[in-house]
Amino acid sequence: MKRLSRLLSPLLIAALVLGSLPVAAAPAPAGNDLVGTTAVLDAASTQSDRAKIREILARDDVQQQLLAQGVSPTEVEARVAALSDEEARQMAERLDQLPAGASVVGALFAVFVILLVTDILGLTDVFPFTR
Question: pTM here?
């Protein structure tokens, strides 16, 4: 029994050490980082900014003005979706700062600026004077 134990002990130790080396040497999988509070709050504020913009653009008077200027609501929705988080935040802040009666004019101006910038960048073809 002692002889068997002396023979098997080094073999079992070597097997356990060699078996655990790949686990210890393996790199940590990416994407398992903890999500910080600021990241969660930024995502929530971004969603609320976009919801605020969509809410204003969904109003009937804004829709009528957009159609009067020749801009389709689907195109506006696509452009709002294409806004970066910073642009959406700035637009929502600007909409908050506008006076109560001028929100339609401000919203239309903001939409006009967005359309103008994307037209100048060549992403759309809305205004003929930007060519």
Answer: 0.47
- Structure tokens given for 114: 């967005």
Question: What is the CB-side half-sphere exposure of residue 91 using CA atoms within 13 A?
Answer: 29
Residues 62 and 24: beta-carbon distance below 8 Å: no
Q: CA 46, CA 92: separation in Å to the nearest integer?
A: 10
The span from the CA of 124 to the CA of 82, in Å, is 12
Specify the long-range contacts of residues 102-109, CB closer than 8 Å, at least 24 apart: 103/56, 104/59, 104/61, 104/62, 104/65, 107/56, 107/57, 107/62, 108/62, 108/65, 108/66, 108/69
Residue 11: CA count within 13 A, CB half-sphere: 5
Angle between helices 37-57 and 60-68 (to 10 degrees): 70
CA 24 from chain centre, in angstroms, equals 36
* Mean pLDDT, rounded, for 68-79: 85
Least Cα distance to 53 among 82, 83, 80, 85 occurs for 80
